[in-house]
Structure formats: C-alpha cells, structure tokens
C-alpha cells in the first residue's frame, strides 16, 4: 500500500521533547506496527485473545512498568511517557494499549502487598482488574450497592458488578463496595476498596462471572460478576492500617484515581484516530475512481486535512495535561477536557476514515472498522462524555443544585 508523502505523525513538540522520550516513542511505534498490528488484524475479527507471548514481550520492553517506581523494577517514568506508549499501541490495537493499565492496580494496594506484587506487575506477571460499575451504578460512584459485611478475620462481599474487563485472567480484582448500609443523605459514606486475590483463568470462591457480548474491545473478555459471600481477609481492605477512617475515604480514593486513566483514554482515542488517518492517507493514494486516485479529489483531501488537524489538536492538549500531572498540578479538569475532546474526535475521525474507504471500510478486511468500533467505546468508559462535561462545568461554574 502506498505511503503518505508526508509523515502525518509529527515529532514530540520542543517544549516536551527529550532524547529519552523520542526513543521511547520510536520503540513503542516499531513494536506496535511490527508485532501488534499483524496480530490485531488476525485475531480481532475472530474475537481472539491477546496472546501470552505478546504480553511477555511487552513486559520485557517495560510497558507494564512505565509508572512503577524503579525500586520495584519499573521504569519510574511519568504520565507523559505512559501516554506516548499508549498512543502508539492503540494505533495498532486499543486492547493491547489498555492491558498495560492493569499493572497499575498493584499501585493501589497497601504497602506490604505492593512490596510483593509491584515487581511482578512491572514485568506484566501480575495484573489486576477493576470492579466498580454495577447494574444500577456507572459514573455515579456514590450509587454503589455491593455490600462488605464484617466477619471474623475479614469481610464478606455480596452484590453484582458490571463491565469487569480481564476479570477471568487477572491475578486480582479490585472491588468497590460499601461496609455500611446505603444512606441517601450521605451517599459517599461507607465506600471502600477491597483486593480480591485469585488465580488467573479462574474465579475465587464466592465469585461467578458471565461474559458480556460486546461489539468491540476484543482481545480480552468483559464480565458481569456476582459476589456471593466472597471472603476477603482484613489486610485486603485498602487502607486498613491507616489511622484515617473517614466515611468517604473509599469514594475519595476511587474518584482521585480517575485522572490518569482519563489521560490514558485520551491517548487511546488519539491512537485510534491516528491509525484511521494514516490508513486513509494510504488508501486514498491507492484507490482509483474516474481514472484518478481518490486522494486527488478535493473532497477527500479536505476530509484528511480536517482529520489530521483534529488529531493534532487533541494530542497537543494531551501533552499539556500529562505534563501538568507530572509537574504535580491537580489534573482533574484537564484530564476531563482531553478525555472528552479526544473521545469525541476519535469517533468522528474514524467514521470519516470508514467513509473514505467506502464499502471496503465496512468489512473486516481493513482495520478501519476496528478503530471505528473501539473509538465509540472511548466516549463511554472512564466516565462518559456527559460526565466529563459535568466535571468541567463544575470547575467553571458555581455548584448546581441538580445533583
């Protein structure tokens, strides 16, 4: 397939560019295009799982340990480098870019457990999943109803969880639950996090799961989980040794941990859009109509110009948000902004790319349909586009009485 005359992937801009970051970006790009993309093109249409050998290679390259501190065997880098790698992997397969986040579950554990599991997580040998959403609770964390009841030596978890991707293969499920009855006058009260350790490929006693039939995000399975007197030892309650026992500690832990995943999702959105853009540039030079490549026609050229501009604008905001987070700035609003804009952009750009491909784009013979399907999800997970707008507006306007 012909290549674009001009590479649509500009280098990291000068304010953020370092030799190390450029090397990381190039390494991730080469791995994504040479290893991940062929596997994605083969396995995604048949809903195959990410191969263990690919995960092992990613572990050797340090992708799982980007933000894991060096004393634990990680690279000890920041959100910026995490976003760089994520964009490159998503350009090939968003699921592969997403699985590197599963190592971050170990960062949420208490100190003693971090000592044990973080070195393994940095190599991709210990990965977790997150169980927060429920049939009646999604972006509204305070609506969580899963119960944690105290018993001798630990807790019993009971309830339902939705959208738990990788729950079957994970080594640990981080569960958000209530350790006291739901109080409509104090909805944040009693929310805590529990680490449910398990063996990969199985569910622990008291947990059962049903795969959810989804239209995209293939490469791994997503589950609805049922907890029926699932026992969790005392030391698996996150923060069980801390003197801080505020009723809303679990809510604050969960909410505060969302900024980096939202920057991660922006990077995934940008990677999907860039893949669709690059494929469209190449296809426009190959596909002929009326005796000319369709890339010669102004309608196609202007589509590509707009797509490229929107991708680059979102990437610039992502760099800004990631750099701010690494500098210690409170990233909540910036993360919400870039997540919102990048997700919306990604759906539009991948849709335009499918249009450029015409009927060929509506087949599984070209990866553009995968980018399109996966881009639609970025407007939903890690907080919907509507929730992102609420977060942004709450930073800019007085609190609304409509809660």
Describe what you observe in this structure.
Helices cover 45% and strands 14% of the residues. With 403 residues, it is α+β, with helices and mostly antiparallel strands. The protein folds into three domains: 19-122, Butyryl-Coa Dehydrogenase, subunit A, domain 1 (Orthogonal Bundle); 128-247, Beta Barrel (Butyryl-CoA Dehydrogenase, subunit A, domain 2); 259-396, Butyryl-CoA Dehydrogenase, subunit A, domain 3, CATH 1.20.140.10. Helix 3 packs parallel to helix 7 (259-286) and helix 7 (259-286) runs antiparallel to helix 8 (298-326). The radius of gyration is 22 Å and the shape is globular. The mean pLDDT is 93.
Compressed to H and E, one letter per element, the order equals HHHHHEEEEEEEHHEEHHHH
Separation, N- and C-terminal Cα atoms: 52 Å
Dominant shape: globular
Class inferred from helices and paired strands: alpha+beta
Low-pLDDT stretches: none
CATH architecture of the largest domain: Up-down Bundle
Strand content: 5-15%
Tell me, rounded to a whole number, the average pLDDT: 93
Number of strands: 9
Could you name the CATH topology of the largest domain?
Butyryl-CoA Dehydrogenase, subunit A, domain 3
As a whole number of angstroms, the C-alpha radius of gyration is 22 Å
Biggest sheet strand line-up: 2-3-7-6
* Number of H- or I-type helical stretches: 11
**Total domains, how many?**
3
Q: In the CATH hierarchy, what is the superfamily of the largest domain?
A: Butyryl-CoA Dehydrogenase, subunit A, domain 3
The percent range for helix content is 40-55%
Q: Mind describing the biggest β-sheet? A: 4 strands, antiparallel
């Amino acid at each position: 397939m012909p290549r674009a005359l001009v590479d649509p992937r500009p280098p990291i801009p000068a304010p953020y560019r370092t030799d190390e970051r450029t090397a990381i970006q190039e390494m991730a790009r080469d791995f994504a295009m040479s290893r991940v993309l062929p596997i994605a093109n083969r396995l995604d249409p048949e809903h195959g799982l990410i191969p263990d050998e690919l995960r092992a290679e990613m572990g050797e390259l340090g992708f799982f340990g980007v933000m894991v501190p060096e004393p634990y065997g990680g690279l000890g880098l920041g959100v910026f480098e995490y976003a760089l790698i994520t964009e490159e992997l998503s350009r090939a397969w968003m699921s592969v870019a997403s699985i590197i986040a599963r190592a971050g579950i170990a960062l949420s554990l208490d100190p003693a457990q971090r000592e044990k599991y973080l070195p393994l997580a940095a190599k991709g040998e210990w990965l977790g999943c997150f169980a927060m959403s429920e049939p009646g609770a999604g972006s509204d964390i305070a609506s969580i109803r899963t119960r944690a009841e105290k018993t001798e030596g630990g807790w019993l978890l009971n309830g339902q969880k939705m959208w738990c991707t990788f729950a079957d293969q994970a080594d640990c499920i981080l569960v958000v639950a209530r350790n006291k009855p739901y109080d409509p006058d104090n909805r944040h009260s009693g929310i805590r996090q529990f680490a449910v350790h398990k063996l990969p490929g199985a569910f622990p006693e008291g947990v059962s799961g049903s795969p959810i039939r989804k239209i995209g995000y293939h490469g791994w399975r997503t589950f609805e989980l049922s907890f029926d007197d699932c026992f969790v030892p005392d030391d698996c309650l996150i923060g069980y040794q801390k003197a801080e026992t505020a009723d809303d500690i679990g809510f604050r832990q969960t909410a505060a941990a969302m900024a980096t995943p939202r920057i991660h999702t922006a990077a995934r959105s940008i990677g999907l859009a860039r893949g669709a853009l690059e494929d469209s540039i190449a296809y426009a030079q190959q596909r002929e109509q009326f005796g000319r490549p369709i890339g010669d026609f102004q309608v196609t050229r202007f589509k590509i110009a707009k797509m490229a501009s929107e991708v680059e604008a979102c990437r610039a905001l992502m760099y800004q948000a990631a750099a701010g987070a690494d500098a210690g700035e409170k990233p909540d609003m910036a993360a919400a902004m870039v997540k919102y804009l990048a997700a919306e952009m990604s759906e539009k750009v991948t849709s335009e790319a499918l249009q450029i491909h015409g009927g060929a784009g509506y087949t599984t013979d070209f990866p553009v349909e995968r980018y399109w399907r996966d881009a639609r999800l970025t407007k939903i997970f890690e907080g919907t586009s509507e929730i992102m707008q609420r977060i942004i507006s709450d930073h800019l306007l007085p609190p609304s009485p409509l809660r």
